[in-house]
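Technical annex, item 7. During the second reporting period the consortium partners agreed on a shared format for inverse folding records so that results from different sites could be compared directly. Each record opens with the tokenized structure and is followed by the designed sequence. A conforming record, contributed by the partner at site C, is shown below for reference.
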């Protein structure tokens, strides 16, 4: 079968053109874009000694499928996982143009797995956060074991915003009004989306990421979510990945809260957020969610996506979610990984199933 496996940074660079073409024809999320993967590989990927392992499939002389994987390291443990995984990738999937391919996506995924597995050596296959509607979901479920499950809440933002707001509880609507009234004592409230060219963008970005990093180091010092290079990765993503923005909530001349988001394919992905502790009494994250959802409605987007993680605050706004599955290889290395992870969970304090650590 016409599969080619490309290894390392050189192989990653070779597929740039076809990868960016597939982004436009494949049902991919922002996490499958070349720009997202490139930002990670140049920073956190390098810090964790990660090596791209990409399976490419051609049909009639044209690249129609990419399986973007890498060998990375969690401590000393090697993992064969999605490129940009396993901690910052909210959704893992392949890129595949079904209309141009001579085979179906299930056959493509099976062939790609067979092509890349020999390059993993003893590393277990560990594919995180595969949506139940992902291109690769069915095929991965046929050959791999389920390791754990989670979900990603979202708000359908088609239709009038007023109708959506009316569907929320009376208590939530009252809370929005009350918190806005309290915040307005500090000045006029404004919400804006900043792109990388906005004055002050880099300063706000740096403060956002530092606050987030410090907060989670305090809450869970043992978490691997902030691997080496995380701060550099998020900074590079925000400065180079074209769909990334900063959602900024201000009161007067004070920045109350901010959030990294991606506006991609009629969807607003809510990623990393933080707030000024002086405004904690008005629940700035709650208000930021409100304004991000309103923005999605007002700008004709289809979804406001809270991404990976089942934190309760997301379900104040979202009535729907999509299931996420993490798969592990059904072999000796996969079973060993599962056993070690289970033992570690028994020996450490419970952690929330949260995408907020991203």
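Designed sequence (site C submission):
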């Amino acid at each position: 079968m016409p599969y080619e496996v490309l290894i390392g940074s050189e192989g990653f660079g070779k597929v740039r053109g076809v990868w960016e073409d597939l982004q436009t024809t494949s049902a991919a999320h922002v996490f499958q874009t070349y720009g997202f993967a490139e930002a990670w590989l140049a920073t956190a990927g390098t810090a964790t000694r990660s090596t791209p392992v990409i399976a490419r499939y051609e049909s009639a002389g044209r690249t129609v499928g990419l399986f973007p994987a890498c060998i990375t390291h969690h401590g000393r443990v090697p993992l064969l996982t999605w490129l940009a995984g396993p901690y910052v990738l909210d959704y893992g999937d392949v890129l595949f143009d079904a209309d141009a391919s001579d085979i179906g996506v299930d056959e493509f995924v099976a062939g790609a797995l067979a092509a890349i597995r020999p390059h993993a050596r003893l590393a277990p296959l560990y594919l995180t956060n595969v949506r139940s509607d992902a291109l690769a979901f069915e095929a991965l479920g046929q050959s791999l074991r389920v390791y754990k499950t989670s979900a990603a809440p979202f708000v359908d933002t088609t239709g009038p915003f007023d109708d959506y707001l009316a569907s929320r509880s009376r208590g939530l609507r009252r809370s929005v009004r009350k918190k806005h009234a309290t915040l307005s004592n500090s000045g006029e409230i404004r919400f804006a989306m900043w792109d990388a060219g906005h004055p002050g963008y880099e300063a706000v970005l740096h403060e956002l990421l530092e606050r987030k990093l410090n907060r989670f180091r305090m809450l869970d010092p043992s978490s691997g979510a902030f691997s080496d290079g995380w701060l550099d990765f998020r900074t590079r993503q925000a400065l180079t990945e074209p769909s990334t923005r900063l959602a900024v909530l201000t009161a007067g001349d004070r920045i109350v809260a901010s959030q990294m988001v991606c506006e991609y394919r009629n969807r607003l992905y809510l990623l990393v957020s933080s707030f000024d502790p002086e405004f904690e009494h008005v629940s700035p994250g709650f208000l930021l969610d409100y304004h991000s959802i309103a923005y999605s409605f007002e700008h004709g987007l289809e979804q406001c996506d809270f991404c990976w993680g089942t934190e309760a605050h997301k379900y104040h706004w979202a009535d729907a979610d999509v299931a996420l599955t993490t798969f592990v290889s059904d072999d000796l290395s996969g079973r060993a990984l599962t056993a070690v992870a289970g033992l570690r969970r028994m020996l450490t304090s419970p952690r929330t199933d949260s995408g907020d650590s991203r």
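The chain has eleven helices and 13 strands. The chain has two domains: 3-151+322-357, 153-321. All partners now use this format for quarterly exchanges.
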